[in-house]
Amino acid sequence: MKRCSCQMVIAGVLGALVGVGRAEPPRTVEAFAQHGVIVDPRTFFTAAIPGASEAGSGQPGSRALVTEEGVYAFIETPENEQQLSRTVPGTVVRIAGKLLKEGALVYIDTLELRTTVPLIDFARFRKDAGEVVTLKGVNKCQCGLEVGGMPRSCVLGHLHHLEAADGGIYHYLRYTRGEQLFLGQGFHFQPVVVQARRLPGNYLLVQEVQVE
Questions:
Q1: Across the strands, what pairs with 37?
Q2: What does each C-alpha distance from 101 to 73, 107, 157 come to in angstroms?
Q3: What is the mean pLDDT of residues 29-56?
């Protein structure tokens, strides 16, 4: 697997950032402590592709957290994956750590297994049809993703998120084009225009993508 050089990353994305017409926005990181249920985001949303395979369950990007407050993704670090290895979809947990608000993105400090399911209106999130959006930004792995000082790592691979011109960070549901974007296959640190259905938790069900 190729390693990402920070110097090359910085040089390579300067033009891209100018291209999307913005400076790096400030990030809001705050303490996070919520009681909820682990889900697989690829199969949780009814708006996602019907009959999607659960192959790859347990791999990075195959866990999200649903609480009464919302849907949250996990940044793909070795520490997070070690904590999440104790869970399967349906596991009830209490998680404390850090939250990047612009991405509904969580870094786990502690994960406690619980037996009591909190009162959560799952249908409110599961059946949300989302909104069809067109987002411009840069497809970044954690070598250059701005997460407000939260721990980040590409040890598990160069796994990508969309750092968008609207200031948000978005996460790809791992289907077809979304899988290619997530893995950086042809899109590593590329300025892109993504047409997608935006679902709770800043998840994107990608429909089309173009490199600018």
A1: 66, 92
A2: 11, 12, 24
A3: 83
